[in-house]
Amino acid sequence: MRHLFLTVLILLTASTNVFGENGLQADNARLHEAPPSVSVHAGYLDINNPHPEPVDLIAVSSPVFEYIEIHLSSVEDGVARMRQQKKITIPANSSLSLSPGEYHLMLFNNSQPLPAGSEVPLELLFSNGEIIPLTANVIRQDGTHEHHH
After folding, report:
1. pTM value?
2. DSSP of 4-45, one letter per residue?
3. SS3 at position 95
């Protein structure tokens, strides 16, 4: 009975998190819905690094978008700025959330309409060679944070 309980617990956990081959985890992937005339989406997710050394997220891809960039938002001299990043380092034994106003993904030139409720396949590539495929949900923005370009 205990073995069955542990098996069910592992299956339930695996259904909400996506694991890389050596233990990296990614979940809670989401994109903000954009008006039909806008071809740029902002994306967010959570990454957990259980390794004893840091690892870098170095690329993100999707068959639905022409290209995806990693960005960091900041405020300099009272002006909001956004800069493309070559990588994001996830510290050892730590988690990192990509969220509005911080690190986030910019997804360019979608090949199909993406209304709220849609799902988008993503693939994360890390510096240690791990690849994590996952699905991002397209969600309606709540109006508390707007992302402009």
Report:
1. 0.79
2. HHHHHHHHHHHHHSEE-TTS-EEEEEEEE---TT--EEEEEE
3. strand
